[in-house]
Amino acid sequence: MKKLVRDIYSAYGFNDQQAQQVADTLIYTDMHGIASHGVQRMVMYDHFIQNGKVRVKSQPEIVTETDVSAVVDGHFGLGSLIGTYSMNVAIEKAKAHGVGIVATRNSGHYGIAGFYANMAADQGLIGLSSTNSRPAMLPTHALQAFVGTNPIAFAMPAKPHNFIYDAATTTVPQGKIEVYRKLEKDLPAFWVAKEGDEEINDHTDDVDLDALRDPYSHVGLTPLGGVEEATGSHKGFGLGMIVEVFSAILSQGNTSPEITPEDLQVGPSQSFIAIDPSIFGNPDAIIKKFSDYLQQIRELPARPGKTIYVHGDKEAIAYDDRSKNGIVVDDKTLAEVTGIADRLGVTYGDLTE
User: Fold this and answer.
1) Can you provide one Gene Ontology molecular function annotated for this UniProt record (predicted)?
2) Assigned CATH for 1-51+316-353
3) 3-state SS, one letter per residue, for 311-346
């Protein structure tokens, strides 16, 4: 599958390094068990490449810079390439000056935020990344989607594997809704809300994806915490706005309500932060203390039949499983990917072996 993805992006016109980079990003996601943002996303990227929203030949550019910060203009290239470039800038600054903070504008959908945070952790640094998106979240008490899914990712070196927190500030990302629809599964409660006769009601079984993508449809994703302040709705809403500050406001890029899939001159905004733990002391001692702390959590008494995981554990388990057994791609996604390959004249073998 990785070879097929690489060959598809080469056929679009990306150079060999870029095509391999895109394949690495997408397959990394599926290898860690996050099907919503792996090869499932290729059909959306294909649409953007075909309609010109993603410019194959464009290159990201630093437009403002200090020793510890930069603003990057992605010039509407592919989001994963812009994200990798931006995080590498942050990493270089962190290694030289202790901290690197990059705000990026005019980017594209970049996949999972955790990939970029983990780029820093793999080099011994603390990493953070976030991105806004077109409107998807219903702010607390609102009838109109206005804030994006706006995920926040944090990664830090630890033993036996990196700690990685990566979560949308909505209850689930929109991609997960799409996966459930492909599998014809009912949605769990409190993922999506719609306007009822008198108030916003939980909406679980008959979500129209077109309505979900329309900010004026009175259908939207719930913030973390659901639809009521009593359950913490305002917390997910507030976290989503913090993402807007670090991505769109600091870069002077587009905020969520300014982003539409049809406007070819508007793209999401993102942030990339790397911190060298050595500015606080011995990095090995810091990482050991953190690793010990995480292990203490894993060893807490658990409810009968349950296992306590810390962030990154499930992904590490998924990676080990898929390294041995391969990744699982649903039939509809596989048909989408092979359909793209057929259109571009890309050959492939038996993907079910």
Assistant:
1) oxidoreductase activity
2) 1.10.1530.10
3) CCHHHHHHHHHHHHHCCCCCHHHHHHHHHHHHHHCC
pLDDT tens across 35-93, in order?
888 999 999 999 999 999 999 999 999 999 999 999 999 999 999 999 999 999 999 99
User: CATH assignment of 58-280?
Assistant: 3.30.1370.60
Cis peptide before 151 (omega within 30 of 0): no
Q: How far is Cα of residue 142 from the mean position of the Cα atoms in its chain?
A: 25
228-273 tens-digit pLDDT: 899 899 999 999 999 999 999 999 999 999 998 778 899 999 999 9
**All structural domains of the chain with their residue ranges:** 1-51+316-353, 58-280
The residues near 50 (Cβ < 8 Å, ≥ 6 apart) are: none
Burial status of residue 66 (CB atoms within 10 A of its CB: 0-12, 13-18, 19 or more): exposed
273: helix, strand or coil:
strand
Residue with structure tokens 């309505």?
211
Question: What backbone phi and psi angles, to 5 degrees, belong to 157?
Answer: -60, 140
Pairwise CA distance, residues 347 & 246, whole Å: 42
Q: Report pTM.
A: 0.92
**What was the pLDDT predicted at 303?**
97
Among 126, 117, 158, 155, smallest CA distance to 275 is for 126
How many CA atoms, within 13 angstroms, populate the side-chain half-sphere of residue 13?
10
Helices first, then strands: H and E counts in the chain: 12, 10
Query: Kindly report the CA angle at 216 between 213 and 220, in degrees rounded to 5?
Result: 50
CB 158 within 8 A of CB 290: yes
